[in-house]
Amino acid sequence: MIIGLTGGIGSGKSTVSRQLSARGALVLDADAVAHELMVRGQPVWRDVWEAFGWPVLDAAGHLNRVRLGRLVFHSVSAREALNRLVHPAVRDALRCRTRTAAGAPWIVWDVPLLIEGGLFREVDQVWVVYATRAQQIERIAERSQCTREEAEARVKAQWPLEQKLAYADRVLDNTGTLEGLAQQIQAATAGWATS
Length: 195
Ligand code: ADP
What we know:
- By secondary structure, this protein is α/β, with parallel strands linked by helices.
- The chain has a single domain (2-188), classed as Rossmann fold (3-Layer(aba) Sandwich).
- Helix content is 51%, strand content 12%.
- The protein contains 9 helices and 5 strands, in the order βαβααααββαααβα.
- The chain has helices at 13-22, 30-37, 43-52, 65-74, 76-99, 133-144, 148-156, 161-165, 178-188; strands at residues 2-6, 26-29, 107-110, 125-130, 170-173.
- It has a 5-stranded parallel beta sheet, sandwiched between helices.
- The longest helix has 24 residues, at 76-99.
- The chain starts with a strand and ends in a 7-residue tail after the last helix.
- Adenosine-5'-diphosphate (ADP) binds next to helix 1, helix 6 and helix 9.
- Residues 7, 9-15, 139, 143, 174, 177-178, 181 line the site of adenosine-5'-diphosphate.
């Protein structure tokens, strides 16, 4: 069983992901996979610096993620170019790791752009973690210690969560307390064998 877990920034996806992992799921985190693939010497690292040039590397030859992030945040074409390099490689890695994860009954693909990128078609169930836009902004600002304006810009750069709900087989409603969220996860995984 493959569960595609998604949400919006600050909606609580990582919190859910950690709890599903604690319940015995094998969690494959697309952001973490992307990080791995962009380590110096890896194929995606090479593709990225060939596409964007020396400014995205630091003195030691590692990708400067802050600079790369700033670049793609301000340019749609740069963002699309980066996504074309990174997303297919991440998708392949998720598929490959799923194939080789023999024996794991519950596999969670934790993917921020599960729906936008089309990967939702390859999972058995789509779970969306929902919070209101105001809550997303408030929680990001608190977590990342950025201004409300910065948090708002990051939320606005993504699909509205309401749009993702249409794809959901299950909605985890995170408009309440963390305790309330934990109870929903307990209920959703009640039939899972605990390790
Ligand atoms: P995402 O992975 O979707 O960006 P996180 O799980 O990291 O979101 O949650 C964002 C922040 O909000 C974290 O600091 C988290 O502890 C906090 N948070 C998540 N859910 C709640 C909640 N129901 N009430 C209060 N804070 C929450």
